[in-house]
Design goal:
Helix content: 25-40%
Number of domains: 1
CATH class: Alpha Beta
Radius of gyration: 18 Å
Bound molecules: calcium ion
Strand content: 15-25%
Order of helices and strands: EEHHHEHEHEHEHEEEEEHHH
CATH topology: Rossmann fold
Strand order of the largest sheet: 4-5-3-6-7-8-9
Structural class: alpha/beta
């Protein structure tokens, strides 16, 4: 499967990178693509015989590949991360595990933040050859610039993963000090997975998962589990993002459309999907973790972090996105004045 395509846009003379989604996401996109009418000028239809799905590049794709930060990252601005940085830019002691296809080492901005890594797949490398985990790590680092990353490779170089491996990855991450666990993956229900989620929560970690790109209300896992945040995706207009799942089991929403972030080989590009939305919430969680205190004295702060994020969202006119759009600044403000739970 071809993982990256480059598309020259003649009008702007700028290349944008179209990134294939994770295998499951690809499937959903193929199933659902015909249901969406999208600006044909910006929608790259997959080749007839291709199983890769290229999402729409940004209509505002007028940036050079090196012009990466921060104006291009509309999601970072939307959730008011710059305002949040007046309170904290995160803390080195807060480690965010990225359970994904790996984190590419070519980008020094990301590589220097990775404090631990493990490869639980049959790939020969913990590096990201697929171009998904790097994108998630880039968004998390953009929102919580002083926090550290943990590369937990649970999806292989074709973007495939098994629930039992993700479960092992969760346990590994917690046992090696991760406080925020980003799972921008969607899979079927699994006892192993649910037990790992519950273990991580019991150890004081917070888990954030993509709601899935099914475009409906069917649950995704691990997002659906009680002890795991389920994140839907929104666009710049606070509408539901293309293909985002939704439902009464969704906890919050975050930017998940035309999200610009790092890709392997020191490049940058756009992704659409709840994966990117989950990464935004993980960034917010990392900021909140960096200042949260154990207000109720139960020996952990993940409960205070979750409370602060959920109770500081901005309501939006979309059904099935829980409390609404996350807001980093308001979440930190809530944390500072958090009551005992
Ligand atoms: Ca949940
Ligand atoms: Ca607590």
């Amino acid at each position: 499967m071809k993982k990256l395509k480059y598309l020259a846009i003649a009008l702007t003379l700028v290349e944008v990178i179209l990134v294939a989604a994770l295998a499951l996401d690809v499937l959903f996109a193929r199933e659902s693509a015909s249901a969406y009418s999208y600006s044909p000028a910006y929608y790259a239809a997959p080749a007839d015989n291709s199983d890769s799905s290229s999402y729409a590049p940004s209509p505002q794709a007028t940036y050079s590949l090196d012009d990466s930060y921060p104006a291009d990252r509309w999601g970072v601005t939307k959730i008011e991360a710059p305002q949040a940085w007046q309170i904290t830019r995160g803390d080195q002691s807060c480690i965010v595990a990225v359970l994904d296809t790996g984190i590419n080492k070519d980008n020094p901005d990301l590589a220097d933040r990775v404090v631990a890594e493990v490869n639980l797949t049959d790939s020969p490398t913990s590096d990201d050859l697929y171009g998904h985990g790097t994108h998630m790590a880039g968004t998390i680092a953009a929102i919580a610039p002083e926090c550290r990353l943990m590369n937990v490779k649970v999806a292989d170089d074709a973007g495939r993963c098994e629930a039992s491996v993700v479960a092992r990855g969760i346990i590994w991450a917690v046992d090696h000090g991760a406080k925020v666990i980003n799972i921008s993956l969607s899979m079927k229900a699994s006892t192993d997975l649910e037990e790992a989620v519950n273990y991580a929560w019991s150890q004081g970690a917070i888990l954030i998962a993509a709601a899935g790109n099914k475009g409906g209300s069917e649950p995704s896992y691990p997002a659906y589990y009680v002890n795991c945040f389920a994140v839907a995706g929104t666009n710049e207009n606070n509408s539901l993002a293309l293909l985002s799942s939704y439902g009464d089991w969704v906890d919050v929403a975050a930017p998940g459309f035309n999200i610009y972030s790092e890709l392997p080989q020191n490049q940058y590009g756009y992704k659409t999907g709840t994966s990117a939305a989950g990464a935004h919430v993980s960034g917010v969680a990392a900021l909140v973790f960096s200042v949260a205190e154990d207000g109720n004295g139960n020996g952990a702060v993940n409960d205070e972090v979750r409370w602060a994020i959920e109770n500081s969202c901005t309501p939006i006119a979309v059904d099935g996105v829980g409390q609404g759009l996350v807001n980093a600044f308001q979440a930190l403000t809530e944390t500072v004045s958090s009551p005992s739970l």
